[in-house]
Q: What sequence folds into this?
């Protein structure tokens, strides 16, 4: 009974938290519908009712109050999903400790980031707001829907999306922690493995001690002390229980294989590798263990461990049966992920469906949200992009982006200044503009907020 | 007291007078008054918003209000103040400030911390057991400044990181910190401020640490209670100064007072409150217009900031208009070929106009925040934490112009904060039995020309004499000239907040004629270097210097404003960015 009351209280609390999400009704008429999972349907209508796809077919009548968009000659596809992003985040790295599993990017979402609107203008409706790669076990990430226009960070969080966490191998965690003369493990790649194994072992002990306490605390006469609550270990325990998907920053095949083994040892099944530039070398091993890969289309050589790379990576992984996605890790690149996906047709000859899967259903699988988004199917969320031209063509132009049946981008109505909040004291400073432009070339956003631990004075020399 | 009127202080006060508080001089009796009974006669009494007595009398005795009304008998021992046709209000209450506190010096950081993931609580900004009384200095100048505006009580909090310590409600008068305290441990003060270089170094770290400490406190509180009921045979609870400080909060006996200026910060605080369930006071809010209803449903007790973005545009408008007018004239002259000129101009001009429009739209939101809350019937107080005392009255008037009724403004300075802080039985209105905190102005307080003439704090009188405007003009004259009489010479301690912590340096300035020379030394600047291109205009000093840093030459451009013995501004390093710089002149 007590339990029931607690559950009821929790439900009330949760429903109190649940924000009123805006859901719309849109009828998209007569487009070429790229469903991703159910083929291409010519001259077909898509009806989104109260935020969900309710019908795909011919000659659908518009319900009362529906917005009707004529997509004749246009392509209609599911909203693009970016499995690696740092959009809408204030801080990226809690770089003070090699295991920062207690922190969560959901806590520092910035709903005012206009970058979200720019992403929406490129057809991206969902991104994975990730912690950076400064730590072997980084912070928890948050899957967000680009419901730009709210000031409430909780509205951005995709309701029901599974928890995810960032891990990182190789140069970044060793550089931030060990290689700094501070004598903190990890200083080497084997140190990284040790840190992860140690955390998992401690997490296991922590979980067992709580299980033991919870089992005995309701027994008559039991008056023992509870174990010390530890948020870091709470998270690790949840990973071990399979409640959190690991997204691991990685480049080299040897350490990708290492983490596969570590996860096998601890019974962890939900594992996605990020960047994974040498993934093509261990593609069968990844497929065998059900691990997934989220890669760049053709981006490498920005540090020593990222030289052995190929633009065929996505194609090789795909053809070996690895669920593969193409990500941006960048506020600018995310705006044309469809071009990035198209590169796999030049390098590897992927089919249209395979190429488009890299930015829709596959990243959805990697984030554990494939039952909700990633393809155009009845019952799924009304997240849709309409393209003039085929999305894999260099002439592709997104004209509408719809999230939950609400038009979030309309090329005809696209004001210059889409910022939600404006500094009333803002001055126009051309030097600022130059700085901003430069920082957009800094592709290593994964190391944001970690600069101060690298002994760099005055600014980030970490490009 | 007279000794304090050194030339520097006098000049500062003149500056205050000229710019924001015309022609007022502070004067306070050095000797204890012969009586602690006062009668203010023939005064317009605003007992509380909407409750007025024209030409009445207020009598105070031993720090308490003893009678208020029209036909009040004046005790024989009363000092009578003939406040003919002046206005008396309950003393104002400040919901969050550090008035009376001396800012602790930034500790110089010795490079990278050894184990940044496991700092001591103090290094991590976690000092909830701190007592603000330890840092209150009753002679701190800020008390005098705030009191001169009519504030008589303030909710003060210690300096620190995410959990700086316990707040206290103090009266702005007293000989010692303990003497001033009205309510101790009135709140558990918190900020979303990360620690420097150690965990939690980000806002998400602060949120995680906050949750962890709170949940630990809940568990350990429960165990402690169980232990207290029967100690035999079970392990004693661990002691922990941080966790124990949270017990009054988890027991809901003490509210959490969170500072949150930006809308995003306020949302994060609401998230924490929603997750943990503490009783919340949210103060120094500047961007709350979109979350009024959320704050309402969270039962948050809200204090809006008295700081507003400065409306510089009004001054600049003239400048901007001038070239525009000229362009207009040109067009008139060259009537034959107007199209050629217009075409390239439109793009940028339109963009500029659009930006100015949006800026104005948001300026209106900041200034109208209080009116927005008032219209939504949310009770709120004000806080002064980041407001300059010289701007407070002007900002109140701007809020009133933006739609906040005067009565509501007065309520937010008196009755509302008294209620929100649980002080309604002692403060907030002019009623018998309440603490004698009063402010008397010669015109209605929100009138532009109103001047505060008397302030009473628990029956102690502070009198402000108004000199005629001639002298203030003379004062202005004395300050005239290009450099405004600003003294630059001397030894300055300079601290600059870089991304890598605070850089300390010593600046030595000399002035011969109009030429300013000097050196920078200390910290990373070794050996000392000469400063170049030093210029002083008004109180703005600019110069640059180049020093050797780790084998490369860094050129730093400094732009600061000198205010008495302090300076404030920025240091800019080409291609890296600007960093806030502050300085203090060392006493000779």
A:
């Amino acid at each position: 009974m007590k339990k029931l009351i607690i559950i009821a209280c929790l439900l009330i609390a949760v429903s109190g938290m649940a924000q009123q999400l805006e859901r719309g009704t849109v009828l998209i008429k007569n487009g070429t519908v790229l469903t991703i999972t159910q083929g291409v349907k010519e001259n077909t209508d898509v009806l989104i009712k109260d935020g969900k796809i309710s019908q795909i077919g011919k000659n659908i009548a518009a319900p009362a109050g529906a917005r009707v968009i004529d997509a004749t000659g246009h392509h209609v596809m599911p909203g693009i999903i970016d499995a690696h992003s740092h959009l809408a985040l204030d801080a990226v790295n809690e770089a003070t400790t090699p295991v920062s599993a207690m922190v969560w990017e959901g806590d520092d979402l910035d709903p005012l980031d206009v970058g979200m609107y720019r992403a929406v203008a490129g057809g991206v409706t969902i991104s994975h707001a990730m912690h950076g790669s400064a730590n072997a076990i980084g912070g928890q990430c948050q899957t967000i829907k680009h419901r730009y226009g709210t000031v409430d960070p909780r509205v951005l969080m995709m309701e029901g999306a599974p928890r995810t966490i960032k891990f990182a191998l190789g140069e970044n965690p060793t550089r931030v922690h060990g290689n700094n003369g501070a004598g903190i493990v990890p200083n080497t790649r084997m140190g990284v493995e040790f840190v992860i194994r140690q955390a998992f072992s401690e997490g296991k002990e922590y979980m067992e001690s709580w299980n033991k306490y919870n089992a005995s605390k309701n027994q008559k006469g039991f008056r023992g002390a509870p174990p010390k609550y530890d948020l870091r270990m709470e998270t690790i325990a949840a990973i071990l229980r399979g409640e959190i998907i690991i997204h691991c920053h990685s480049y080299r095949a040897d350490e990708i294989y290492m983490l596969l083994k570590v996860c096998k040892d601890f019974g962890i099944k939900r594992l996605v590798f990020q960047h994974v530039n040498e993934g093509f070398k261990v593609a069968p091993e990844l497929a065998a263990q059900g691990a997934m890969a989220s890669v760049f289309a053709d981006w490498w050589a920005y540090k020593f461990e990222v030289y052995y790379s190929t633009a065929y990576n996505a194609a090789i992984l795909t053809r070996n049966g690895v669920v593969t996605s193409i990500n941006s890790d960048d506020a600018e690149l995310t705006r044309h992920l469809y071009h990035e996906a198209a590169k796999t047709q030049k390098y590897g000859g992927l089919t249209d469906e395979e190429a488009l899967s890299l930015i829709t259903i596959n990243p959805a699988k990697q984030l554990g949200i494939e039952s909700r988004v990633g393809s155009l199917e009845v019952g799924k969320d009304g997240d849709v992009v309409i393209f003039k031209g085929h999305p894999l063509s260099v002439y592709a132009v997104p004209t509408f982006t719809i999230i939950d049946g609400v038009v979030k981008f309309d090329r005809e109505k696209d004001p210059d200044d889409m910022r939600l909040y404006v500094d009333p004291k803002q001055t126009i400073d051309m030097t600022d503009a130059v700085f901003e432009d430069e920082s957009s070339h800094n592709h290593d956003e994964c190391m944001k907020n970690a600069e101060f631990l690298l002994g760099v004075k005055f600014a980030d020399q970490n490009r | 007291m007279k000794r304090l009127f050194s030339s520097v202080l006098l000049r500062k006060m003149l500056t205050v007078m000229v710019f924001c508080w015309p022609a007022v001089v502070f004067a306070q009796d050095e000797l204890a008054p012969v009586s602690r009974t006062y009668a203010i006669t023939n005064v317009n009494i605003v007992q509380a918003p909407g409750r007025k007595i024209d030409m009445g009398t207020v009598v105070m005795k031993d720090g308490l209000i003893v009678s208020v009304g029209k036909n009040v008998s004046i005790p024989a021992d009363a000092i009578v103040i003939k406040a003919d046709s002046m206005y008396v209000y309950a003393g104002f209450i400040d919901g969050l400030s550090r008035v009376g506190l001396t800012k602790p010096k930034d500790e110089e950081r010795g490079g990278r911390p050894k184990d940044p993931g496991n700092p001591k609580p103090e290094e991590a900004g976690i000092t909830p057991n701190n007592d603000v009384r330890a840092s209150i200095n009753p002679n701190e100048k800020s008390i005098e400044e705030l009191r001169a505006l009519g504030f008589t009580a303030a909710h003060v909090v210690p300096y620190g990181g995410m959990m700086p310590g316990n707040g206290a409600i103090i009266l702005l008068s007293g000989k010692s910190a303990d003497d001033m305290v009205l309510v101790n441990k009135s709140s558990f003060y918190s900020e979303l401020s990360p620690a420097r270089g150690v965990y939690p170094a980000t806002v998400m770290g602060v949120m995680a640490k906050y949750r962890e400490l709170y949940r630990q406190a809940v568990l350990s509180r429960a165990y402690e209670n169980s232990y207290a009921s029967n100690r035999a045979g079970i392990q004693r609870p661990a002691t922990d100064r941080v966790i124990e400080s949270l017990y009054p909060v988890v027991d809901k006996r003490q509210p959490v007072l969170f500072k949150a200026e930006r809308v995003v910060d306020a949302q994060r605080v609401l998230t924490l409150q929603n997750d943990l369930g503490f009783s919340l006071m949210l103060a120094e809010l500047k961007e709350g217009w979109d979350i009024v209803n959320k704050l309402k449903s969270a039962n948050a007790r809200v204090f809006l900031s008295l700081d507003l973005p400065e409306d510089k545009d009004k001054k600049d408008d003239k400048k901007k208009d001038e070239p525009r007018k000229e362009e207009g004239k040109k067009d008139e002259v060259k009537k034959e070929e107007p199209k050629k000129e217009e075409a390239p101009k439109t793009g940028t001009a339109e963009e500029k106009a659009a930006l100015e429009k949006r800026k104005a739209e948001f300026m209106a939101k900041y200034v109208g925040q209080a009116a927005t809350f008032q219209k939504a019937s949310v009770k709120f107080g004000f806080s002064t934490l980041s407001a300059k005392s010289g701007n407070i009255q002007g900002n109140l008037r701007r809020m009133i112009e933006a739609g906040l009724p005067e009565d509501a403004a007065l309520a937010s300075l008196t009755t509302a904060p008294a209620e929100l802080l649980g002080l309604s039985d002692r403060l907030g209105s002019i009623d018998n039995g309440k603490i004698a905190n009063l402010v008397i102005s010669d015109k209605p307080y929100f009138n532009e020309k109103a001047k505060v003439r008397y302030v009473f704090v628990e029956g102690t009188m502070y009198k402000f004499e108004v000199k005629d405007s001639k002298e203030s003009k003379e004062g202005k004259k004395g300050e005239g000239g290009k450099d405004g009489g600003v003294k630059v010479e001397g030894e300055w301690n300079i601290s600059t907040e870089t991304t890598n912590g605070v850089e300390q340096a010593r600046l030595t300035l000399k002035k011969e004629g109009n030429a300013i020379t000097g050196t920078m030394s200390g910290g990373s600047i070794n050996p000392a270097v000469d400063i170049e291109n030093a210029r002083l205009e008004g109180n703005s000093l600019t110069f640059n210097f180049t020093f050797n840093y780790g084998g490369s030459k860094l050129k730093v451009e400094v732009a600061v404003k000198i205010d008495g013995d302090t300076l404030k501004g920025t240091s800019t390093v080409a291609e890296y960015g600007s960093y806030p710089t502050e300085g203090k002149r060392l006493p000779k």
Summary: Chain B is about 30% helix and 30% strand. The first strand of chain B starts at residue 24 and ends at 27. The longest helix of chain B spans residues 338-375. The CA atoms of residues 138 and 176 of chain B lie 6 Å apart.
